[in-house]
# Entry
Amino acid sequence: MNKLSMDKQVAVVSGLVEGCSIRSMERMTGVHRDTIMRLSVRAGEGCTRLIDEMMRGLRCQQIQVDELWCFVGKKQRQVTAEDDRQNVGDAWTFVAMDRDTKLVPCFRVGKRTKRDAVAFVGDLAGRLDGRCQLSSDGLNSYVEACERAFGRDVDYGQIVKTYEADAIGPGRYSPPKVVRTDRTVISGAPDPAMICTSHIERLNLTTRMNMRRFTRLTLGFSKKMENLRAAVGLHFAHYNLVRPHGSLRVTPAMEAGVTTSPWSIANLLDAAA
# Structure
């Protein structure tokens, strides 16, 4: 991997962040899949550190949070008593997004537990400068997490969407229709009309399209938890710093005032080294 030229590294990472699998990048670039994996882990871990350092003192007014599912090693129903349950089976990525700038200030890969929710929201609170309105789904762990992290210094509301029963037959893979939406004020004085998770749910689609490990009905799952964490770090660093947002025409980091110009993938790899 150390002998891989920068042009080759850029070509490999460019494919990975656009949703190509490791084996497809091996076929397209001629770089062995083991080298691609080592590069992606090294770059991803560096990107995670980079995002941690850069996303500080943010003036975000409307924050939405959500969790994104995938699995590591095997599906949860295949997990046995001999397996390390912290590192195989269901994995959840907690993600926060600023509604206005589309910036992702932080994320956390783990399990859908109260411990991970508390750690995630605590990390988020430490990155914000000033009061914000926070919106989430109905996950109960968020209530205690927000109370611990923000105290009274947050306007927090939950939105719970009720969907029609899953279709059976030809339409079973179509998105179910929302039949009811309930908004609840949890703390502070949030604007009820702004209690919303639609923007981060759209971000979830982008994540699934651009990260093979999150694509449904795929063989491209993560074999190790550390590989998943590295892939998530690489994805969100590229999303924040490199890729211009479709509606903003600039990167989320530029819109939030974190950077003044878009980065190239070569810039990202240099900074994450």
In short: The longest strand covers residues 62-72. Residues 152 and 232 are 31 Å apart (CA to CA). The longest helix spans residues 33-54.
